[in-house]
From TrEMBL:
<dbReference type="InterPro" id="IPR039360">
    <property type="entry name" value="Ras_GTPase"/>
</dbReference>
<protein>
    <submittedName>
        <fullName>Ras GTPase-activating protein 3-like isoform X2</fullName>
    </submittedName>
</protein>
<dbReference type="GO" id="GO:0005096">
    <property type="term" value="F:GTPase activator activity"/>
</dbReference>
<dbReference type="InterPro" id="IPR001936">
    <property type="entry name" value="RasGAP_dom"/>
</dbReference>
<keyword id="KW-0343">GTPase activation</keyword>
<dbReference type="InterPro" id="IPR008936">
    <property type="entry name" value="Rho_GTPase_activation_prot"/>
</dbReference>
<feature type="domain" description="Ras-GAP">
    <location>
        <begin position="65"/>
        <end position="203"/>
    </location>
</feature>
<dbReference type="Pfam" id="PF00616">
    <property type="entry name" value="RasGAP"/>
</dbReference>
Length: 203
């Protein structure tokens, strides 16, 4: 129904319009932590479940929107220090079923979504610390970097723009390389695990 002030309904003033709302209500019950112990322990055993496809974590990740499963799973396993074994098991299974290494991590897999979520949790602060000042400088200087001759503005030339682009890329790469020691250990551990599995499956 339309919401309308009572006094407006009895006056002859010009109407300013009406608004119609569609409201839905949902209610979730959250119990004390102890009631979830069984489910939590079952999920945390996923890395040791053989095959991994029969584990609770993998089954939870079979929903249509895998991101909805990846977010709580990453937080749960990260909090209990068991994320690396799970990533190892999932990576081993995914790589063993992927023939072409060029298509690895391009799909909508649970592993891909979990790595994405991990980078959001641990990587975002690191990214800000590493590249924020550089990005602010690029925006402030606003040097032209277009190297497509057909898109150059008046007064620009490809050689100068290429030098600008090269300088920015070099600075960005240098900042990333020099920040290796402050890269979050959780990310380094996950990437090391993925690299090891890739070398084993794609010699």
């Amino acid at each position: 129904y339309c919401l309308q002030a009572k006094e407006h309904s009895r006056s002859n003033e010009l109407s300013l319009g009406s608004i119609r709302l569609r409201i839905s209500y949902s209610e979730d019950y959250v119990f004390p932590s102890k009631y979830y112990d069984g489910l939590r322990n079952l999920i945390l055993q996923s890395a040791n479940t053989k095959p991994i496809t029969s584990s609770a974590a993998f089954i939870l990740g079979e929903i249509v929107n895998r991101e909805s499963a990846a977010q709580p799973l990453v937080r749960l396993f990260l909090n209990h220090g068991k994320l690396i074994p799970l990533v190892h098991a999932l990576a081993n299974w995914e790589m063993s079923t992927t023939i072409d290494p060029n298509t690895l991590f391009r799909g909508n897999s649970l592993l891909t979504k979990m790595v994405d979520e991990l980078m959001k949790i641990l990587g975002l602060p690191y990214l800000h610390d590493t590249l924020k000042s550089f990005i602010e400088r690029v925006i402030f200087e606003s040097k032209p970097c277009e190297i497509d001759g057909s898109k150059l503005r008046d007064g620009e030339n490809v050689e100068t723009n290429l030098e600008n682009l090269y300088g920015y890329v070099k600075d960005a790469v240098d900042k990333i390389v020099n920040s290796a020691l402050v890269c979050p250990s959780g990310m380094r551990d996950v990437f090391s695990t993925l690299k090891t599995q890739a070398m084993l499956n794609y010699p």
